[in-house]
Design goal:
Layout: H1 23-37, H2 43-59, H3 64-86, H4 91-94, E1 98-111, E2 117-124, E3 133-139, E4 149-158, H5 165-172, E5 177-189, H6 193-208, H7 217-228, H8 236-244, H9 255-271, H10 276-293, H11 298-315, H12 322-336, H13 344-367, H14 372-376, H15 384-418, E6 420-421, H16 425-435, H17 437-449, H18 456-481, E7 488-489, H19 495-513, H20 523-539
Helix pairs in contact: 1-3, 1-12, 2-3, 6-7, 7-18, 8-18, 9-10, 9-11, 9-17, 10-11, 11-12, 12-13, 13-15, 13-19, 15-16, 15-19, 15-20, 17-18, 19-20
Length: 540
């Protein structure tokens, strides 16, 4: 259906609806998980709240406002119950800190010098206990095998103390417990064949990106970290540089990786004459294997679920709703791992993408739209130079709006968890994010070439080009890190200030998202953030 007036600046009639039913599931469930993690609601009250909400929703189907309120209460209650059942409160794990024997399902192992190793995995208080948390183990002697269940002995402590940035980095990786001086006491269950294959494939994938035509160890580590999504593969100096410029997220598996691979796989399926449903299923399965091999991080799982929603809408010939996909991804992630609700990496990932979808993209479209004179001028009458200038102006406006929206949404969380704010990261992202697409594309080409051993020379050359490009990006980030006021050190001493600021900023963005197009600017969320920054500075 077309507009009757071609100069009408209202939204396109073909755009997907702003309505996202998953909103009433994901946000209450997240609130329930956070409520139980903070110890604000016991299991009995949570079950009672969920029961009252279900009964109220059953008897208020004819009253929309009452029904929504009951659904919210039900979501909060179920979220608190599920978090208590699957993760439990932190005090139940670290109440008796000291020597401990823990059942640990090992996910990743990093072998180091002198027989030392570092492993991450899931910890349980018993072999049949439903509660589990992520743990970091620093050990010695024989290392465990990824995918196996072991009894590890060591000294247990909590991760993520507010005054220790290094510990907060562990917390950002969804790690809440730490076992030091660990050793393998017993093997309960060996790694499965599938887990062993995933581990070997991940190692081969990371090692393959380090194979270059010319010597460039730094570039090889940058390429491996970019494609595998593990910042531990970076050199220490590079990790500090990209962290100082607020661009460390470039080395996480995100929508850029998943979208590029999905497009390539769908195109390949059509070339093989597969119908859309079979091709989409094969693409999703291949992407899930990639997500599992690279560690299954929150950003990777979020991107995969959003890609699944988009592919499903495309197959069913329906308009896709990115916000609906984001909320579904949030709900599914919390069901699989309720501990993620308190994970800084999870919070930053979803808050930033929500800011981009709610404010960044609409604001970019608003500020980069052509003026009346441009729309009235025939395309043939515009020179190539003018068109190039307009295209560059639009790309800069889009990049700036998206960068500001993501930084605004994630700033309260960064201040609360890491005690730092990176205002210069807006401009660093504006420069580095557009440059990060080429190495990802070249990395995908390298993966495709790895299936043919007689193309190794070409694969090494492709890796070298990508590594050199990333080396140049690191050099640019190093220059940006030396600029004054790139990173500001601050910390909100009260946790409720950070939580209230995050809710206020995201709530403002969500409210503004449902307003007319000309109201979708960055001013309101930024003003709310600035107010909380002043209030937090007064408290400190």
């Amino acid at each position: 259906m077309d507009r009757t007036n071609t100069l009408d600046e209202s939204e396109d009639l073909g755009q997907p609806s702003r309505h996202a039913p998953a909103l009433w599931v994901a946000l209450p469930f997240l609130a329930g998980c956070l409520t139980d993690a903070a110890g604000l609601m016991g299991p009995v009250y949570a079950y009672s709240l969920a029961t009252i909400g279900l009964v109220g929703a059953f008897f208020s189907t004819n009253r929309r406002s009452h029904w929504i309120a009951c659904i919210i209460l039900t979501g909060v209650g179920f979220g608190a119950c599920w978090h208590a059942l699957r993760a439990g409160r932190m005090e139940s794990w670290t109440g008796d800190q000291g020597r401990a024997d823990l059942f640990v399902e090992v996910n990743q192992v990093d072998e180091r010098e002198e027989g030392r190793w570092r492993a991450t995995g899931w910890v349980q208080t018993g072999p049949i206990d439903t509660r589990r948390r992520n743990i970091l183990c620093d050990g010695f002697e024989a290392p465990p095998t990824p995918g196996g269940l072991y009894v590890l002995s060591g000294f247990l402590s909590a991760c993520g103390q507010p005054d220790d940035p290094r510990e907060n980095w562990f917390r950002s990786q969804n790690i809440s417990l730490r076992l030091t001086r660990a050793r393998v006491a017993a093997e309960i269950e060996p790694a499965s064949f599938l887990a062993q294959q995933e581990n070997q494939l991940g190692k081969r994938l990371a090692a393959g990106f380090r194979e270059l035509t010319w010597e460039n160890p730094r570039g090889g580590s940058l390429l491996a970290a970019t494609m595998v999504g593990q910042t531990r593969l970076l050199e220490t100096d590079d990790r500090l540089i990209f962290s100082a410029t607020g661009t460390l997220h470039l080395f996480a598996i995100s929508g850029l990786h998943i979208t590029g691979m999905a497009v390539a796989l769908v195109w390949l399926g059509r070339k093989c004459r597969l119908n859309d449903r079979v091709g989409g299923a094969v693409a999703l399965f291949t992407l899930w294997v990639y997500v599992e091999v690279t560690g299954g991080t929150p950003s990777a799982c979020r991107a995969w679920i959003m890609a699944a929603c988009i592919l499903a809408c495309t197959t069913l010939q329906r308009l896709s709703n990115p916000l609906q996909g984001l909320l579904l991804a949030c709900a599914i992630t919390l069901v699989l791992d309720p501990q993620a609700a308190t994970d800084a990496g999870f919070q930053l990932s979803y808050a930033s993408v929500a800011g981009i979808l709610l404010v960044g993209s609409p604001a970019a479209k608003y500020f980069s739209r052509p003026g009346l004179a441009e729309r009235l001028t025939p395309k043939e009458a515009i020179s190539k130079t003018v068109r190039a200038v307009r295209w560059l102006r639009m790309r800069i406006a889009e990049g700036f709006c998206i960068s500001v929206a993501a930084s605004t949404a994630g700033a309260p969380i960064a201040l609360s968890v890491f005690g730092s704010l990176c205002p210069g990261g807006i401009f660093a992202n504006l420069l580095l994010v557009p440059l990060s697409g080429l190495p990802v594309v070249l990395g995908m080409i390298s993966v495709g070439l790895s299936f043919f051993s007689w193309l190794d020379i070409l694969r090494h050359f492709v890796n070298s080009i990508a590594a050199s490009w990333l080396h140049g990006m690191a050099f640019l980030a190093e220059i940006l890190a030396m600029l004054p006021a790139m990173t500001t050190k601050a910390h909100w001493r009260s946790d409720w200030v950070g939580a209230a600021a995050s809710l206020s900023v995201l709530g403002t963005m969500l409210w503004q998202f449902h307003q007319p197009t000309n109201a979708k600017t960055l001013a309101r969320p930024f003003a709310v953030l600035l107010t909380w920054l002043i209030f937090g500075a007064i408290l400190v």
